[in-house]
């Protein structure tokens, strides 16, 4: 018989369902994703670190989980894993498949979650829960396996994550180098998805992946361009990195391209400001518009903070805008080769409409390379 599990929300509401995955208590921000597929990529995305994820599509795990990720993230260029482990605190679904069917399936979603100590709950009306989150905004939640537990019990039992420490836990611990070609790009890792590295190497670029807390000076001097990666949490917790971008990266005048949190860090370094969205953008169907060409793209996104357009200094301008809510989706410097986007050009999972941005960035790097 399936064990009862409950999700306690900070508004004191309780959602009951059936447990699968690991049997333990956790706490975290409850966020939702509306993607129809790509749960392997989504669950291993470092930007979800510290969060309890609600997946709105009614069936999850139907194509199972492939064999364990290779130790080397570039061993398979089409690897579906975005990091070396599941990053979410917990998972909430309507239903998970116990008998998946796919040629690459090596284990079920439940088996994968259990092996990595991640609790999950099913038989939850995830769309109703999403409507609640859209009305109330992101809330803290507590997953507990004891059906008699109160909210106070859940808070004390739940394993929480200190968001200020999250980026350090998901960035590479030491400098990693990937050989791809004569052009060399520094990736400042604040929780980078492996697909960003794969996208660069597949284009014939060598990558130097450096954790954000390292002194960036020697690496900026060595490389031809700089990419600021995605990552979890509030960008204002990363002000030491912002200062490095302002004082080291900008001083080099080399091309800079930011992705997701990289957009927010670049905006802060430029002198702008960031704000938290009510419930964030987490899906594979977010429409954005290029304010220069007026062309629209469908994009993959995962973020809870955005740059405020009205905070940008005079030599910076908004580049992309979210068609749904008008929030910022990218910025550009008018005087220097520095730009960034709030969405994920590497997709994974999701559309590849915006992959050309890597090509544009690398052409710029090549044209300024000494």
Question: What does this protein structure show overall?
Answer:
By secondary structure, this protein is an alpha/beta fold. The chain has two domains: 158 residues, 3-Layer(bba) Sandwich (Glucose Oxidase, domain 1); 203 residues, Rossmann fold (3-Layer(aba) Sandwich), CATH 3.40.50. It contains ten helices and 19 strands. Helix 8 crosses helix 9. The radius of gyration is 20 Å and the shape is globular.
Task: Please render the helix and strand layout as text.
Layout: E1 4-9, E2 14-21, E3 26-33, H1 39-43, E4 51-55, E5 59-60, E6 90-92, E7 95-96, H2 109-115, E8 119-122, H3 126-136, E9 139-144, H4 151-157, H5 166-170, E10 176-178, E11 183-189, H6 194-201, E12 205-211, H7 217-222, E13 225-228, H8 239-252, E14 256-259, H9 261-270, E15 274-290, E16 296-307, E17 316-322, E18 328-333, E19 338-341, H10 356-368
Parallel strand pairs: 3-4, 4-6, 5-7, 6-8, 11-12, 11-13, 13-14, 14-19
Antiparallel strand pairs: 1-2, 1-9, 2-8, 3-9, 10-12, 15-16, 15-17, 17-18, 18-19
Helix pairs in contact: 8-9
